Amino acid sequence: MDFLRYAEQSAALLNAEIPDVEALVDHLAGREWLHEQCSDRDCMLLRKFQRELRPVFEAGQQGDVQGVVDGLNELMVRHPITPRIAHHDHQELHLHVATKSASVAELLVGESLLGLATLVCDLGPTRLGVCSASPCTHVFVDTSPNQSRRYCSDRCSSRANVAAYRARQKAVDKVVPA
Known about the structure:
The protein is mainly alpha-helical. It has helices spanning 3-15, 21-27, 40-61, 65-78, 104-123, 154-175; strands spanning 83-86, 94-97, 128-130, 139-141. InterPro entries: ABATE (IPR010852), ABATE_dom_sf (IPR023286), Znf_CGNR (IPR021005).
């Protein structure tokens, strides 16, 4: 299991709009083997999980270590995870969330929680954040070496930097008489 990938997928899941099965299938691009199993119930369960998970990222953004830990622990009680050691395709041993008879929603929730729990233990709970660009509310996982990420994407970063530049230019124009 690549815990960073699972943690980043949890942020992508939280940022996704999943009103119906078609949207869920779109979200699962690259995981075609799951497409046929997607159901309306999965969509409903994932929307509920999104509401449950968001406070964990908000706590991380605020530097609330206890809030992140308590939030993840509570979610792991509500959504038990069954990891299994996998050895396939001649790869090294790694962890997967057990999928035998698990729904798509259960699989995605399990991967999210296992990835986030591992990330929080290895890199710290303040690696979870909410985009600083207004009006964006997307979340992200900060894997930068110096823990300096503030935006969910390059697009939001650029938009915020351009807005700040324009604000500085406007302030300079007001100070210097024409």
